Structure formats: C-alpha cells, structure tokens
Amino acid sequence: xxxxxxxxxxxxxxxxxxxxxxxxxxxxxxxxxxxxxxxxxxxxxxxxxxxxxxxxxxxxxxxxxxxxxxxxxxxxxxxxxxxxxxxxxxxxxxxxxxxxxxxxxxxxxxxxxxxxxxxxxxxxxxxxxxxxxxxxxxxxxxxxxxxxxxxxxxxxxxxxxxxxxxxxxxxxxxxxxxxxxxxxxxxxxxxxxxxxxxxx
Length: 200
Fold this sequence. Notes:
This protein is mostly helical. Helices cover about 80% and strands about 0% of the residues.
C-alpha cells in the first residue's frame, strides 16, 4: 500500500485510469486540492457545503475524463481542477441567480394577484352594498339609476321603458332618486367614494 501523498501527477493519473481507482489516489485529490476549491467558492459567495458538493462533482468528472483519455497531462492537475471548479461553481451561481429571479418574480406576481383579488372582493362587497341601497329606493328609482349609470342607456331609451310623460319628468325623477341615495350614503366614506367613481 502506498504511503500518504506519494503520488506524483503522472502516477496519480495512472492510478486514476484503473477501472476502480485506489482509494488513496482519490484521497490524495481531496488532500491536495480541496482547499484550493474551497478558497475559490468562499471568495465567490459560497459556503463550505457548497465547496464540498462542487469539489465532489469536480473529482467525479476529472476521474471520468482521465479514464476516457480526455485528460493527458497537458496542464497540471492543480490547474485543471481549479479550472473545473471555477467553471462548475460559476455555472451554479448563474443557475441560482436565475432561480432566485424566478422566485422573486413569482412572489411579486402572487402578491399582485392576491392584492388584485382583495381589491376585487372589496369592490364586489361595496358594489353589493350600493345595490342594496338602490333597491331600498323602490322599483322606479332602481330601474332608472341602473339603466342610466350601470347600463349607460340614454334618457330617451329609458323613457321608452318607463311610464313617464316626457324626458323632463324622467330627469326630475332621476334627480330625486339620486338625492335619496346620497342621503343614505351619508356617513359611509368608502361607499360614497365608490358611488362617485362608479356612478357619477
């Protein structure tokens, strides 16, 4: 059995080319080069767990590359592992950045949707309360106000739907209905504001 740290680069490559590399060869990769990987990851927003995960991937890829004759020693093992660590970690940072941006975007859209739903529900509640007040004015007022303000019908058309002598009589009735509604709205600021924006 070989003593700790005895492999030269060439011997290490020969050991790693075996179908099942000796444990001591793999341990030497960790002993000799992990600190270098950890230093790079730490300087680039990573923690020790990140460094361990990245370096494990680097070692696996390196051994596979050696066994497939993709690394023949044109550069030092140290330089090659550093380059791989850098490449894999920077790609991981990009991936995390994209994931974080997607999450932020999703959170913003979810907040907007929730806010929109809250506004819609509040709007529906106010609208329902306003319609209840209009109902309390009686059938004639309800018919005139809904036809004019909600359906946007002209007075001539509403006159054809109602039993009034002429448009002026209808306009007078509409005015009286509005006064009654305004009286009922007194004291409810939200309802008054909705009334002004929705009807006036």
